[in-house]
Amino acid sequence: MALNGIDAIVFGVADMAEAKRFLDDWGVAPVAAPPDRLVYRTRDGAEVIVRRHDAADLPPAIESGNTVREVVWAAANAQELDGTLEKLRGLPNFGIGSDGLPRVTDPNGLSLAFRVSNRTPVTVKPTQPNAPGSHQRVNQRSPVHDQAHPINIGHVVMFAADFAAMRSFYTEELGFIISDEYPGHGVFTRCQPVGDHHNAFILNRPGRPGINHVAFTVADIHEVIGGGIAMSKKGWKTEIGPGRHPISSAYFWYFENPLAPPLEYYADEDYCTEEWKPGTFERKPELFAEWAIVGGIDGKTRRQVRASDQSGRGHA
Ligand SMILES: [Fe+2]
Predict the structure, then answer these.
(1) If you measure from the C-alpha of residue 174 to the centroid of ligand 1, how many angstroms do you get, rounded to a whole number?
(2) What's CA 190's distance to the chain center, in Å?
(3) Of the candidates 29, 83, 121, 205, which lies 20 to 30 Å from 230 by C-alpha distance?
(4) How big is the CA angle at 164 (ends 193 and 205), to the nearest 5 degrees?
């Protein structure tokens, strides 16, 4: 019995107009919604729901500022959902919301809701690489993306006020599986035995619960780079990226935004089965990123800048 991913994330924000401007640029699709909220969907139908931070019916915030107010986890069918909820039903804060969805709060105080998934899995063929003796892309150019189109909401990363309690809640109550771990500092968990490397990553930050980032999957490194450059050109500020995580293997690019702590485009993460061997690692900066560009890139290469330079020094 397992959950199969994130069906929706609800954000509470101070400035709805700025949130709308960001999401229009981010590449998720707007859908009709009541006037008090914004609703966007990824390609598989996962919802990004934005509410005013002071909306009376929003679950409490676990930190100040714009942030995640609820994560809606999903199961493939009613039987899987029931199996997952079995352990949660005994928890003191388990309840059924006014919308009929079962809910609990995690040890950080974050509201979690559960439902049978509304998503339709998307099959994506990333750009195939060529190498001497191994030509997987024949008579076909590799694309340049001028906009990302996020496929799903792949993971949420949380700062745990009580790391042991959060680790135990996600692995023992929710049944998430440990993919890799920095003992005592961070644990990468996936919500199903066969699936992407992590759906929830929990970081130890004693006494200060919070959201570290929320991540959107794109097809491949070319979409990470093209989508990120598009965001930069529209004026959105890079938090860090592009870069590559050695743990999970993914390419990433994080952006500051008016919804929450950073939002991430990422691609090409490890895919795990029961045969995956979880690693334990000592926390050090090289394990966050093999390489990363701090301030982002904006498509203004030296040659492009010189081409628009009227001084005549345009030929390097
Ligand atoms: Fe991430």
Answers:
(1) 20
(2) 13
(3) 121
(4) 110
